[in-house]
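Researcher: We're teaching a course module on how sequence relates to structure. For the next exercise, students receive a sequence and then see the predicted structure as tokens, so they can try to spot secondary structure elements on their own. Here is the exercise chain.
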Amino acid sequence: MQELFAEYNIIEIGGSIASSAAGKQFSDFGSNVLKIEKMDGGEIRRAPPFFEDNPTIESSGMHIFLDTGKKSIVVDYLSTSGMEIISKLVSGIDLVIIEEQPDVALKLIEVIKLASVNTSTLAISPHGLRGPYSNHLESDLSIFAQSTRLARQRPSMDKNSLAPVGYAPYTTSMQVGLTAGAIASAILWKNKNNVDPYHAEVSAVEALASNVDTPFVAWALTDGVMNYAPASGRAAYPTGVYECSDGHVQFTGADSPFFERCCIAIGRPEWAEDERFLDLNQKPNHREEFLAHITPWLQQRTKLEVFKIMQEAKVLCTPVFTVEEAINDPQAIARKSFTTFQQDEIGEIISPAYPFKEYMSDEEWILRPAPKFGEHTAGILASMGYSSTEQQALFRIGAIR
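Model: And here is the predicted structure for the students to work with:
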């Protein structure tokens, strides 16, 4: 199963989170993936967390996780000498994934098209390569804002609040990267039957706007009425995270039939027929009454006890796991949901395996370590015909590291 993409040769240019996430979808499945890294290592090598809280170019957790199984070459691809190296490298490459400013990406694409008529490209940028916003720099949060998700998923009960959404770092970049990975897979599949290269681009804003929980169909069907996330209303209980005796559980689903089932499960079956709770105009006024009962009920039970009770009652509820609990969960162990690999100078790394397996297979996912910065520069340049003297000259002018 891990050799699904073994026949492909892929290059990453840019060194950011999204392109690294896209490339991982191929390096972990057998492809030969070469990272052409920036002279300073780029975003991926400066993204926390860091091993032992010591920020170095080798210790970024995001690099260690997203660059498994890749090779690394460090080239100043904005320089004339760097562009020449790029033009030679792309010979025999199936796909180049680029995450750069549009003017740089366009220049790289033209160099690649001239150098290798069979190489496809996929460019990732905040707004696409053309248009009035094409050169705008964005952050994860600003992309969330422009894709409507910030307006829909704010944590405040006040519908006029502009409080930011509580997402983990790099959520946007990871989703954009996985979208790019899916598109890259489609390009490679197309090229199996049609050798003509395909040059595609991904807009991060467009990827988020159409990803996971897009509001646009609902907006059209409701005549422009914004469908706010459940957490934004006082009637949305029991949706949320609650404390138990040994941790927390998370409830989802404040609507019928889940609310009524929850009332029965916590010993208040009469509330399942009480208009004070079923009428959405009255329900917000009785939030505190509900919480006054469910809070001590939960605190008298462990999160796994609550989970079992709610599963039997068919209520949407799950325990909030710590990392240790997730790794040691019986289902995760049975599925071999996690794997380990040895990272140079760091030691054993625990990583999620991929969330699918061959039908009824008991295979264990194997990951290879992430490369050191420029680990393969000398070897790859030598294989391209660059002598030691020529490499030293390139190093002296700052074209390679």
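Model: If you want an answer key for the exercise: The chain has a mean pLDDT of 91. The chain is about 35% helix and 15% strand.
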